[in-house]
Every structure is written in C-alpha cells, then in structure tokens.
Amino acid sequence: MPHVYFTTVFILLGSFSSFSQTYVGKVFDDRHGPVEDAFVQNIHTLQHTHTDANGMFQLEHAEIGDSLQVSAFGYTPVIYQITNTAEQATIPLKPDIFSLDEVIITQSIDAIEMLADIHLETAPVNSSQDLLRLVPGLVIGQHAGGGKAEQIFLRGFDIDHGTDIAISVDGMPVNMVSHAHGQGYADMHFLIPETIDKMKFGKGPYYADQGNLATAGYVTFKTKERLDYNLFQFDLGQFETRRLLGMFSLADSDRNTAYLATEYQQSNGPFESPQNFSRFNVMGKNSISLSNGDHVGITASYFTSTWDASGQIPQRAVQDGTISRFGAIDDTEGGQTSRGNLLLEYRKNTGQRSFIKNNFYYTDYRFELYSNFTFFLEDSIHGDQIRQKEHRQMFGVQSEYNHALTFGSSELLLQGSLGLRNDMSDDNELSHTANRTVTINPIQLGDIQETNLYGYLDAVLDIGIWTLHAGVRLDQFDFRYVDLLAQTYQHLTRQEAIVSPKLSIVYQPATNFQVYAQWGKGFHSNDTRGVVVSTGLPVLPAATGVDLGVLWKPMPTLVVQTAVWYLYLEQEFVYVGDAGIVEPGPPTRRQGLDFSARYQPWTWMYADLDLNVARARALDQPEGEDYIPLAPDFTAMAGVHCVSPSGIIGGLQFRHIDDRPANESQSIIAKGYTVVDANIGYTWKKLELGIQIQNLFNTEWNETQFATESKLQHEAEPVEEIHFTPGTPFFLKGTVSYKF
Known about the structure:
Helices cover about 5% and strands about 55% of the residues. By secondary structure, the chain is mainly beta.
C-alpha cells in the first residue's frame, strides 16, 4: 500500500497549501528568459524563497505595501513593492557585473558553485575538458595527443577517464559505459566551450538525480539558449597551433531563438614527432517558448578528431639519453573519434509552480585508439601496440515532474522521475597491432548492449532555519554480451538492481552562515564483459559517503566553504599498464578535508583558493601494501581574475598536486608539480585581443604518470618504473575575436 500512502500525503499537502493565501510571481531577465534560483525575500516578514526553473516563486502572508528584495548572482538587485496580491508579479532583472555582495547563502544555492560563472567569463580554456578544472580540487591530465579524453583526479580518486564521476550536458550523459578503453570514458571534446552557459557540480554520492558513476561527484553543463552577439575568433600559438571559432545567431525573439556554432582546431604539440592533431565541431540549437509558457528545445551537434601521439615514455630512457623528454619509443600511437548528438527537450507547465521536463537524446559514436604501454614486453619482434575500437549507438529518455508547495512559512519541493538509457556497442575490440596498419591477433571482440532503467524521488522541506533533503533512487541494469571470437554463438546476460538512499540536513540561522550534513549511497557499474562471465565480481559496487561542512560569508566580499568527508567504495578499479585497461580491485576507504575561498577585494578583481587533502587506502590488504596507485593526497588551486570597466581582463592561475604513490607499496613515486598559467586581454568596442600563456615559468612537469613494467627492444629483462607524458612547456597563444 505504499502508493496509497504517498498519494494521500500529496493530496493533504496540496489541500493544506490551498487554504493559505499565497503571492505568486515570476522573475525574468532582459531577454524575457526565466531567472532560476533568484532569492526573493519579504522585507517586512523576512520570509524568503527562491525561483524555480521557470523563474516562478511563491510567498505566504504577503500583503499590499510589502516590499520584496529580489537578487540573483550576475544581476542588479531590485526592490519590488506589492500593489495587488491577486495578480501575479512580474519582476525584471538586469544583468550586471558579478559581485560577491549579491551572493546570499541559502539552502538551495551553493555559492562556490555559482562563482564558477566568473571563471567562464574571465579564464580562457583550451578545450571543453578544461572546464572540469572549475570544480574545486579536480585535476585533469592529457596523455595521448590531445584527442583522447583526459585523466581525472578528485577526492583521492584516480578516476581514469570517468569511472567515478558522472558528467552530462543538457541532460545527455557524456560518460560511455563498457567502453573499449575504460569504464565511464568521458570525452567532452564534442562540446564547444563558448556555448556553455552554466555548470553545476557536487562532490560525493548525495544527489538522487545523479546515478551511475556519481561516486566521487558529478558535473553537469547547460548550453546557452541564445547568443548575446555573433562572434568570430582566431587563435594562433606555438607548436603550429590554430583555432577558428564562429558563433552566429539565426533567430532572436522573445519566443524563438536559434544559433549555430562551429570550431576547428589543429596543433602539432611540443613533441619531436608531430601530433598532427585536428578537431572539428559544429552545433546548432533552437529554443521555442510556446504561448502557454511551455518550452521546446532541439540541439544537434557533430564532432570529429584525429591525432598522432608519442605516448607514455619510460623514465630510464630519458635519464640515459636514449630519448628526450618530448621524444618517443613508439610514435605510431594515436587515433580517431567522432560523435554525433541529437537532443530534444519539452518542458510542460502543469501549474503555477509545477512542470514536467521531458528529455530525449541519441548519440552515434565511433572510437579507434592505438597505444603501446609496454613496448616489447610481450612481443619482442613487432612490439606491444594495441588497438581499442568500437561503434556505439546510445539513446535515452527521461521524464521529470517538479512541484512546489507552500504552507505557512514552510516550503516543500517535490521531484520524481523515470528514465531509460540504452548503449549498443558493436565490434567492441581489443587487438594486438603493429604500426597502426597490421593486425597481429584479436584479443577481445564482441557486441555489448547495456540498458539502465531508473527512477528517483526527491523532496526538499524548508522549515525556517532547517532544511531536510531526502531522496531515493532505484537503478535496474541489463547486461548483454556476444563474444564474436567464440567458436560457438553464446549470448551472455546478467541483470542487477541497486537502491540508493540520500539524506541531507542544513542548519542556517542567518543568510551568511550555513552548516550541513550529507549522507548517501551511490554506485558505479562494472564493465559488461566482466560481469556476464564472473560470478564473484560485484556488478554495481556501492559507494557510501558522509560530508560535514560549513558555508560562511564572514564579510560581504568573502565566501568560505570547508568540509570533512568520508567515502567507502565496495570495489575499486585499478589501472593495468601492460594491457592498457582497468581491472577490479579491493574495497577502499577515503577520507579528507576540502577548503574553498572566494574573495572580491574590488569590483573588478576576484581571487579563489582551493585546498584538498585526502587519505586513500585499500582495505583487506597488508599494511604498507594498501596504497591506491596515483590517488592524490594533496592538491591546491588558486587564481586571481580581473575584469576592468576599461576593457582590460586578465588573470593568473596556479595549480599544484603533491607527490603520490604510483603502486600499492609506495616504492614507486609519481612526482608532483606546480604550474602557473596567465592570460591578459583588452576589449575595444567590438574587438577583443588576448594573450594566453600556459606554464608561465616553463616548469618541467609530468602531466600523467604510471608505474608500468615494460621492456625496450635492446633490454634483456623488463623494468617496472614511472612512465610519463611530459607536461606542456612554456606555450604562448594569441587570440583575436570580433563581436557583431
């Protein structure tokens, strides 16, 4: 009878709220678009609320003559006087320079997350993957010619390419499950950075709307609905680096907006063997507001990229002078990939404060990667090069219902959703090759189909200084695999389900101080090829986490957030260098401390600081043999960003990662690094000139590192040691852009 119980509760809550006199309004921007998460407070009663995705809000006990303070980050605050409680208020906000003075800490808004908008405006990025660095404590590293997804580190995790972080764009997942190269592979290069409007992120498994892979955290991106201007941009840099960008508005009215964005990039990189890297992106988006307030959106995009790579090189070959830091043992590595996407969105208003959001996506994806991690360890004649290849079709659909209820001085936000994701990866291959032209022998070849059916319920109850946030998520998986190398046909299948409860409590006695506690269970799925043949392998390893934190604004121009956290993971993934894959490992425990600060000493200057400490250990292992390879134990990021009214913009960005164990016994150490980047630019009318410098002080650093056993062709015995990809040396790039 649980459905009867919940139905009765919803009816009673709805009936109760209907007896209270409510004042309803909408907050919108200068383009008549809704302003989400605007803070609305009755100055007389001090009762407050915030706007939903449609820009709607609702207040109790509002009377004629009361004044409402309305503010949102990036907009000029306004005071709105109530003249008629029977009519819906319409409150416009005008965009303004970002100001920490406007940030009001509320239970529903993460101030540190909001300030990522500053970086989007002031700090240039080399690719969309660089946007991940806006997450406090997240580090990325590239190690295959610029075309491969970056390696990710967060909260004591070597996440590889996405095993323990869920990434999505406009509701479409970026991560590829049961991928040819690694579980959760998240290549964001199909995304043009300048099309990003907002980003949201969270750490830990505490969010009901985030499912598979959201253990260390999640990141979501929202692309722009419209362009404020047309844009043409040209970048020119060292290492024969060039980039062309065009963004063109095709329609721009209150009810219909459309634009086209396209990008082409090429570079040879600093390596002795040219990378011959090239990437092409194109994206079109159309948004329509219907007369009844409903919203329809369609987005189509296509991306293709090719590259050569020098690959990871052994430390000993550099030390004995066999090759330089930018040399190669096998320079025939590289690959090609493409991704086409179609997204449809329909948001249906079902009441003043309720709506249903429906999303559909389809992706056609191709991937081919050549790597050589061990050189001549397995094959002393042809070498150990491997090819990983697949053709994937992915589609999904999700329907989400949102409803807000107000009763007395309390507010209840309800959310429920059902969704489906299906991945069909054909000819998912791992083969032994030579020179990217000869296939010596296939190692794995098969067709994968993985289906995830899910649903979640989420409720946020705001009762004055307390907020309770509870949710539960159910995920059902169906794994299917056909081994195309088997002598007889066999269709292997397995099904599994997991329930993930979530609970958060927020205590906020003032608008400048908040204490919160979070508890939740999440999971990452294992690779289909493993779960269908192994009865001992966990199919959906669970992650259980706890966060205790404080969000504080001690002065109008300073926001500080700190948290202590703990995360237990039932089963870990461990990188295996000699095969270029990941394999399941033991359960793990992580605990740590996060600290973030954002400071605005003047209206034109912003400063940020992120410090992150983590202790990661494998369980059920002997002491001293329980280190988690490459798990970072200390990272630090800091920056200063300037936006002058005179048109000058600029900044310095600092990032540091400490030395960390590269193997389970810590007998091999991956060296840490400290790198500083800089940028400066000037805007004059419609023209903008900019200079960007990566690695300002020309630091010698290793971007990615692995403890790998390998053998060079002249060696009699293999050696296990650090293999690395060198980080970019001093790199200068200029930009010219024209807005029209």
